[in-house]
Amino acid sequence: MSTEQVSTGQVSTGQGSTPKQRVAAECARHGARGLVAACVALLEARAGDVSDDTITVLGGDSARYVLDGGEGGRAGYWPRVWAARGLLHEWDPVATAAIIGATRDDAWRVREMAARVIARHKVGDALDAVAALRADEVARVRASASRAVTVLTAAGA
Predict the structure, then answer these.
(1) Which of 46, 126, 136, 155 has a Cα at 20 to 30 A from 104?
(2) Does a structural domain hold residue 48?
């Protein structure tokens, strides 16, 4: 584990702020590079490399409970869900391998969000991975995967 944490600075989650608004504000303040790097670190099970502030940007008000150890804490699935959702709102191709890896996550919410990211950003390299999710045990994952395959196929991926 790296001793250097990915931090994007002070956080204002603001009552009623949406994930999209928080991600956009954080990118406007500090640039997208650090936020995307933090999302990748979380998806690659390197939560210790990501600051509490950044996890709070991604998770909003719910992050405090998780950071205090609830729902598995940093090692639980919620930070990975929030990381994938962060990539939904701020994409960079450097996250391709991480989002493909997320299609194999043990947590269905992570797999579902990964499929949504792949569809939104037309991540063609993920076609095989997302196609495999059409047989997932969870209906929501299957639905997101089917949509992603349709989008990628229509885009010629």
Answers:
(1) 155
(2) yes
